[in-house]
Amino acid sequence: MFRCKGKHVRQVVYTLGEIGIGIEYGVIDVTNSQWSTTERQTIEEIYEIVDGALHLTFDYLAFTFVAAIIAAVGLITDSSVTVVASMLVSPLMGPILGISFGYFIADNNMMMKSMRNELYGMLLTFLVGMVCAGFSLVNMDITVSDMNEQMESRATYQGLIAGAVVAAPSGVGVALSVANTNINSLVGVAISAALLPPIVNSALLLVYGFHRSFIFDRYARRYYRGSAYSIGLFLMNWVLIFVFSMITFWIKGMHKSEISQPRWSGSAFANSQQHLSYYHESKVEEAIGMTNTMPTPPSSMSKTPQSATKKKKSMAEPLLS
């Protein structure tokens, strides 16, 4: 047992892992005896959490589709509870966090993949909102397209100001949640960030604006303006979450120097995997060597007396001559 400064703990653990301690034999226990702002998981663990939430899978698209429908119903019926429920289902926070973390560790592949998947989720949400708006106009009275409280709160410049105040701490909260695997906090951040409802609201107001223009309503521009404010609210939340999560990663002591390549190929995690592969390869080579040094089979042993008799005959021939 030995002690070291908190800033050297990760390097010590990496060095011990490179020589096999904690991997091939023994266990490494680290105890923190003082408070520190850099207390967090390792880069490898954070990478696995972030990477697991940014892929374009069926579940990602299904959750986005379901969340968009729930948000549309909540906005059309002016139900704040339903809108909050859509925030819990929405998976749009995962790719945004992937963009931040990928940029921070210089992983261009993660960053571009997250950007693509976020845009796909945004497009799907917008299309679902437009379809729901069309159904609401067909099946309901025209007055349903009037802005209610839930719609209007996301369609004004006051809504942008309030969104900025919420989005900045949300970026801090999501980074802290991932760095410390605090899932309960992540759920609260998903509610406060409100990424998905503004997209749906923008689609609803855009369709309602088209409808108002079709019937030559002079208030159509109000809906177009509200649609622009709503999509602007989403983009502003995106940027602020990106910036403040990056700042939080820096405060938590994450540095690019921990990673020699876009991924952690120079870290103890990768070295430990290489060490294990070398270990298994050596075991295989030992097994092959043991098979090569096994006693010769009886067939080869049966040839030895014949060669011995031939040698005896060759020695006896000169004597006979």
What does this structure look like?
By secondary structure, the protein is mainly α. It contains 13 helices and no strands. The chain has helices at 9-18, 43-51, 58-76, 80-89, 93-104, 108-139, 149-152, 157-180, 183-193, 196-214, 220-251, 268-292, 298-320. The chain is elongated. It starts with 8 loop residues before the first helix and ends with a helix.
Report the portion of residues in β strands: under 5%
Structural class: mainly alpha
Give me the Rg, rounded.
33 Å
DSSP summary, beta strand count: 0
**For the residues shown, what is the average pLDDT?**
75
**DSSP helical segment count:** 13
Major sheet size, sense and barrel closure: none
Terminal-residue CA separation? 83 Å
**What is the share of helical residues?**
over 70%
Uncertain residue segments: 260-273, 299-305, 307-321
C-alpha geometry: elongated
| N-to-C order of helices and strands | HHHHHHHHHHHHH
Oligomer: single chain
Task: Summarize this structure as a short list of keywords or feature phrases.
mainly alpha, single chain, 72% helix, 321 residues, 13 helices
